[in-house]
Amino acid sequence: MTSPVANILGVSFTTRGFDETVAHLTQRIDSGEQTHVMTANPEIVMLAKGHSAFRSIVDQAYVVPDGIGIVYAAKWTNQPIYERVTGVELVEALMAEAHKKQWNVYLLGATPEVIRLAAEKLSNRYPQARIVGYRDGYFRQDEEEQIVREIASKKPELLFVAMGSPRQDEWLARYRDQLNASLMMGVGGTFDVISGKVKRAPLFWQKLNLEWLYRLMATPSRWKRQLAIPRFVWTVFREKWRNRS
């Protein structure tokens, strides 16, 4: 039985909650299904709305609601998304499954120091998970084929790629059929958090759904990216009222 989806400005999100998402993705891996997971926030939705090539990648992915703006948009449009499925928490939960099932894991992206620290910390935290390889994201285009071959040779159940959006998902879509990975997921700045380089918002801010504001205060250079949020809100309400008329 397939789960219903919520359509937010043309992007189809799974409506599963966090625990159900982890269970379903684990089931897909166990059954040999290949999955490209995207954790989408308002910025990703607006990018997909404005770029048809990226939109086609999103349409083929398993899209989860990372971003409180998506949850609010679903509420405003009476659709059944009730909780966020954040990238950092999803990576940790999947690594816990990898620990239980002794899955192979490959990490790609971020800086050399960050990816090394992230691999080290994940290995210590989930010792039965097999981190079969990692490398930073600073490689030339002519090195990509060799990297793809290396990943494919390791046959990872989990492949986490941190190159920023939309590059990470474009890269996964381009090489999806060659990577020999069960679950592929673009993880943005997750390795920065896991490595300890970047601190996640305190739980108080998370519970208030103000993690985005904490990140903006901590890194003011993000303000241009945050402009996608008011544009997203305006577009959701405009579409809602247009559909009512």
Automatic annotation (TrEMBL):
UniProt GO molecular function: N-acetylglucosaminyldiphosphoundecaprenol N-acetyl-beta-D-mannosaminyltransferase activity
Reaction(s) this enzyme catalyzes, per UniProt: UDP-N-acetyl-alpha-D-mannosamine + N-acetyl-alpha-D-glucosaminyl-di-trans,octa-cis-undecaprenyl diphosphate = N-acetyl-beta-D-mannosaminyl-(1->4)-N-acetyl-alpha-D-glucosaminyl di-trans,octa-cis-undecaprenyl diphosphate + UDP + H(+)
CDD domains, alphabetized: Glyco_transf_WecG_TagA (cd06533)
Top-level division of the source organism's lineage: Bacteria
Transmembrane segments: none
UniProt KW Cell cycle keyword: no
EC number per UniProt: 2.4.1.187
A Pfam family reported for this protein in Swiss-Prot or TrEMBL: Glyco_tran_WecG
Involved pathway(s): Cell wall biogenesis; teichoic acid biosynthesis
Annotated GO biological process: cell wall organization; teichoic acid biosynthetic process
EC class (word): transferase
Stored InterPro entries: TagA_TarA, WecG_TagA_CpsF
Keywords noted in UniProt: Cell wall biogenesis/degradation, Glycosyltransferase, Teichoic acid biosynthesis, Transferase
Family annotation (PANTHER family): PTHR34136, UDP-N-ACETYL-D-MANNOSAMINURONIC ACID TRANSFERASE
HAMAP family, alphabetized: TagA_TarA (MF_02070)
Function: Catalyzes the conversion of GlcNAc-PP-undecaprenol into ManNAc-GlcNAc-PP-undecaprenol, the first committed lipid intermediate in the de novo synthesis of teichoic acid.
Entry similarity comment: Belongs to the glycosyltransferase 26 family. TagA/TarA subfamily.
Name of protein: N-acetylglucosaminyldiphosphoundecaprenol N-acetyl-beta-D-mannosaminyltransferase
